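re the bet — no i am not wrong, look at it urself. input seq straight from the record:
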Amino acid sequence: MPDFKMLLNPSANHVYRQAAPALAAAELEITAPFASQVDLASIGGAPALSFSADDPDELVLAAQSLMLACFEEKAGWLRPLALPELNVMDDDLVTIPKYPGKTNEAFTRLLLHLTLSQISRPGPLEVLDPLAGRGTTLLAAWQIGHHSYGVDADSKAFDAFAGYLKTYLRTKRIKHSAQVSPVRRDGRSIGRRLDAEARLDEATRDHPANPGGPRLKMTVFTGDTRDSAALFGRKRFDAIVTDAPYGIVHGAEAHRRQGHQPGGRDRSPAALLAEAIPVWRSQLKSGGALGISWNTYTLDRSELLRMLAAAGLHGLDAGPWRSFEHRVDSSIVRDLVVAVAD
């Protein structure tokens, strides 16, 4: 059986860089059933994976979130594989934004890839992040050619994301539309929405047309994640991918849900997820998947799996699915779960 090595893309975040090889190995085991004997390795001192495969799927290898280059190993030589380019937008779409608390974009790509790998429908898919923050998941979905949708309670994060997206599309001279408008219900304003479209099949002076390329759509609402279904109405999504909050920014006014004093916020991410997961489940198409990362100090894995099961989602929890827990800092140990809708 032929042997291969995959050179891993180094992460700018030194904490994630230490955990990344083991996470990449688990990702490959899950998403590449043709690969056997997956193990940690190195190429010239740089982190890599080794594996064996009779008939490797180049599309699957190209989709690995940390893959920098892949080689066939033969008689001590490494022959590079010419893997297809899967990105439809430049990498800097995701990497340019820098701000405190940003989830490492490599981890976002990992979570997105693992979730989408459980969906059998062809793309472009429709991906919802109901805790969108400043849009890392939304941008990562666009980069690989999927439509993206989001909700976030932080109006400042919404403004920052909308401003960045407009500037990026204009600077890159990509044919697009992007506008923010008020959302009204019963004659009163309840928030705002961003609607954007990147028309990659159309040429501009500095951006060549991509014949057959997608016209990527995006809609983002300001609002409570527990109101996501009401905001999007009858719309359903192929995938929901989100990084659960480590603090209180996404909590709605607690008196609405918990009977606390007006103006208070629910400070428990576990309580928020218990209420939000059934809402998110109602927004998934049949055969869809939900991927969520969270701080294990705030919620036990078994409890999260129970929440998912109670909402009618089957959490994947065997073998390499248990290999993604890693330390971020002294107060955060992050893990992920992917669950599928029947």
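see?? Residues 92-341 form a domain with the Rossmann fold fold (CATH 3.40.50.150). told u. also Residues 248-265 have pLDDT under 50 and may be disordered. so pay up
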